[in-house]
Design the sequence.
């Protein structure tokens, strides 16, 4: 559970990578150059919409994902976040996503 106390790097990484669903969401967002909807994430990850929303809440709280309200809620990876940059570089290095 995320609390108001200052999170350590360990906390951030464990929250961010705490489930296969979060890893799939980060992969899907890393492969996109634009903001996407929950529906798009559902199609790319095959996760339940409720699970996507719950995982997105955690990823937003740690700053790995950005959220904007347009016609629908839209989500994108936060490419300015140091942890995200290391994670996407790792994903690319091991062939989990295409080269950046």
Sequence:
């Amino acid at each position: 559970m995320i609390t108001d106390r200052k999170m350590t790097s360990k906390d951030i990484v464990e929250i961010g990578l705490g489930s296969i669903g979060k890893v799939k969401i980060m992969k899907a967002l890393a492969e996109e150059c634009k903001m996407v909807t929950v529906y798009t994430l559902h199609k790319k990850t095959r996760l339940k919409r409720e699970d996507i929303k719950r995982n997105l809440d955690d990823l937003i709280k740690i700053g790995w994902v950005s959220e904007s309200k347009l016609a629908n809620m839209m989500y994108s990876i936060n490419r300015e976040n140091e942890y995200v940059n290391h994670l996407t570089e790792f994903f690319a290095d091991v062939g989990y996503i295409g080269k950046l």
The mean pLDDT is 93. Residues 10-88 form a domain with the Arc Repressor Mutant, subunit A fold (CATH 1.10.10.10). The beta strands are 65-69, 73-77. Residues 49-61 form the longest helix (13 residues).
